[in-house]
Design goal:
alpha+beta
Length: 163
């Protein structure tokens, strides 16, 4: 990467990534997450002055499987606002499927975390870390994280996997 060139999504300079993964991060950065059908701002789930910040933090969430490809599974607890934004993106199914396949090589699934008796793991990437771990991971990889979207006491836990 040329000196002075910004890293995608505010990725910290000390984080080592392959050119292929940098390209995947650039694809994540370039996607417009706004839904043509339903806006998280219109529903009051995200304040209008925080919409851009929310999009950036959700994109950083999407970057975690790219940056942590060796994890078997993850379960993160982003704020309800980020989850709402993700739901709106999923509703535009053709665009979301295209995005998932281009970036992850398969569909990035979203499910509520099951109890320990259920097994939602599938495919090469199915994550299961404590929900509050998301805050630390995002702050580890990215500069200027908006911690409003990464609560310490996240009550949500989401299973994500690529299939």
């Amino acid at each position: 990467m040329a000196d002075g060139q910004e890293r995608p999504l505010g990725l910290k300079a000390e984080i080592s990534v392959t050119e292929d993964n940098l390209e995947r991060l650039r694809k994540i950065e370039s996607i417009d997450l706004r839904s043509p059908a339903r806006s998280a701002v219109e529903t009051g789930e995200i304040p209008a002055d925080k919409e851009e910040a929310a999009q950036l933090e959700l994109k950083r969430f999407f970057a975690l499987p790219v940056l942590l490809p060796d994890h078997d599974a993850y379960s993160l607890g982003p704020s309800r606002a980020l989850d709402s934004l993700w739901h709106n993106f999923i509703l535009d199914t053709p665009r979301y499927v295209r995005f998932s396949e281009e970036v992850f090589g398969g569909y990035l699934h979203h499910r509520p975390a099951p109890d320990s008796s259920d097994d939602y793991r599938a495919g090469p990437l199915a994550w299961a870390l404590p929900s509050t771990h998301g805050r630390g991971l995002v702050a580890e990889f990215f500069n200027d994280v908006d911690l409003d979207f990464w609560p310490e006491d996240a009550s949500m836990s989401i299973i994500c996997y690529i299939h």
